[in-house]
Amino acid sequence: MDVLSVASEAYPLVKTGGLADVVGALPAALAEEGVRVRTLLPGYPGVTNALRDAQTVWTFEHMFGGPARLLAGQAGGLDLFVLDAPHLFARYGNPYIGPGGHDWPDNPLRFAALARVGASIAQGLLPAWQPNVVHGHDWQAALLPAYLFYDAAPRRAGSVITVHNLAFQGQFPRELLASLGLPPWSYSLDGVEYYGAIGFLKAGLRFADAITTVSPTYATEIRTPEAGMGLDGLLRLRGGSVVGILNGIDDTVWDPATDKLLAGRFTAADLSGRATNRAAVGARMGLHADPDAPLFAIISRLTWQKGMDLLPAAIPTLLAEGGQLAVLGAGDGEIEAAVRGAAAEHPGRIGCVIGYDEALAHQMQGGADALLVPSRFEPCGLTQLSALRYGTIPVVARTGGLADTVIDASPMALHAKVATGVQFTPATAEMLESAILRTATLYRDTAAWRRMQTNGMGTDVSWRDPARRYAALYRSVAV
Ligand code: ADP
Ligand code: GLC
After folding, report:
1. Which residue has a Cα nearest atom 16 of ligand 1?
2. What is the DSSP string of 35-67?
3. Is 471 found in the same domain as 403?
4. Torsion over CA of 181, 46, 253 and 324, rounded to 10 degrees?
5. 419: domain range?
6. What mean pLDDT comes out for the span 145-158?
7. Residue ranges lining ligand 1, Cβ < 6 Å
């Protein structure tokens, strides 16, 4: 089975969020299932510069405004095709946003080009390599099944679209239709039209053979008007073609016994190395050394989706329970300012690093007591999975993948010794406060806490089971 994965980011080459983690880790897990994956990425400088043994396998004279080459090679542990189109992708920094903080105005052309090339490979562009399935991720790859549908070419691969976040849909003016290489008749309710514009994700959901999203609960939620963000009707129409497959994490990158980014390594049997990480985080964030204070951590985009605006209201409760708080994140300017303000107001008890820091994220997972994830919606979420693996107790809103991956410390779950964290619903400041109170109470019960840590660390959060599910899905749509 040969699969072409098409995406706009992949760890460790280019990452703005969990999408990159998934695209980067799934190929190795699928190899164990007999699936060979090659990944098609845009030729950003960070990708083309990292490419080893690059060969030009195709040249395009006109690729949406300029010449382009398709390169094949390896980088970041992945087998890659890279769309080297300097007029579209030779730009440093964030892959979607220009220096002024706004989306690149030609984003529709940039990602239509990515999907266009993916579709051509599916149609047999490369005599030496023909995939059985093309798997596109998010709106950036979602025009791919539409090209397969409207092209007058025989079908040579099945198609899968994965929704990582329905909030990002890729909606662009209808005037672009011809420049995207789509025929006039594709602009219809039953085609790529979406609320008077062209909808990339809509098109993908309409034409893909199978649709997946990254947790079973999110797959159910997005069929409702409350969480469907305008696409619930179409998703209901696609019925059984929409399935939820949970994400995993790369358990070679996230292994507390071998993780080189940690200050201290540890195992489920001997957690003593956690104290070294806690000290490192405390030193970095200016927290008082206080071994009795439960240390709450946040590693997140600082956005409304993640419930980060709820934090200020919950901080008095956290402090009254004797807790400390360490925040690592970046995003919304107002939320960043609120977090900085709270740290300035409570020096030694609240600390923050505004920015992106991979090593610090690992040390926080390896040293904090609890991880707060109060998301309003969460397709899957990866930080609670790393927390489980590192003995940090996840305290999460009961939504999407957070609902599917954490076992709440209810009286029965504690009695049955299966609890791994704390859940609350809805994601409001009041319920976050109650969850912090419950967590602090549990923390004082040393035996129950230790048991939850052991349970979490024993949970299989790897890609093994999800990879089996993707492999079975590929077999069901393969051509
Ligand atoms: P999303 O993709 O919605 O942001 P996920 O939980 O799926 O959320 O993935 C977030 C990923 O980004 C995780 O790998 C997490 O560790 C990482 N991450 C988020 N913020 C930071 C940060 N400020 N520094 C380092 N890593 C971060
Ligand atoms: C998106 C979602 C997140 C998910 C990630 C990877 O960024 O917000 O919940 O874990 O994609 O699938």
Report:
1. 383
2. -EEEEEEE--HHHHTT-EEEEEEEEES-SSSS-
3. no
4. -100
5. 273-457
6. 94
7. 17-18, 21, 299-301, 328-330, 356-358, 361, 380-383
